[in-house]
TrEMBL record:
Protein name (record): Uncharacterized protein
Length: 91
C-alpha cells in the first residue's frame, strides 16, 4: 500500500473521531470512526482505499485476546456484520 494512501486512511479515520461528538466506550468511538472511513471509501469509489480499509478491519479481527486492542476487535466484529461491509467487499 502506498504511503499517501495510508495517510489518507488515517486522516479519514481521525476525521471520523473529530466529527464524532458522542462520548462513550472506546469500542463505540472506534466503531463510528471506522464506519466513517468505510463510508468515505465507498463515496470516493477509490479501490485502493477500499482495499486498505477492509485489510485494516480484518487485521482488527486478530486483536481479540490483546488486552490493549480488544476494543478494535469488538468494533471490527460488529462492522463485518453490516450492510456497509458487504458493499465494501463487493467493490
Amino acid at each position: 500500500v502506498h504511503r499517501p494512501l495510508i495517510k489518507l486512511s488515517i486522516l479519514l479515520h481521525e476525521e471520523g473521531h473529530w466529527l464524532d461528538n458522542q462520548k462513550g466506550h472506546k469500542f463505540w468511538r472506534e466503531y463510528r470512526a471506522q464506519k466513517y472511513l468505510m463510508e468515505k471509501a465507498l463515496a470516493l469509489n477509490c479501490k485502493a482505499l477500499i482495499r486498505d480499509t477492509t485489510m485494516d478491519t480484518k487485521y482488527w479481527l486478530t486483536m481479540r485476546n490483546h488486552p490493549r486492542w480488544n476494543a478494535y476487535y469488538c468494533a471490527a466484529n460488529r462492522l463485518v456484520k453490516t450492510k456497509l461491509w458487504r458493499q465494501l467487499c463487493q467493490n
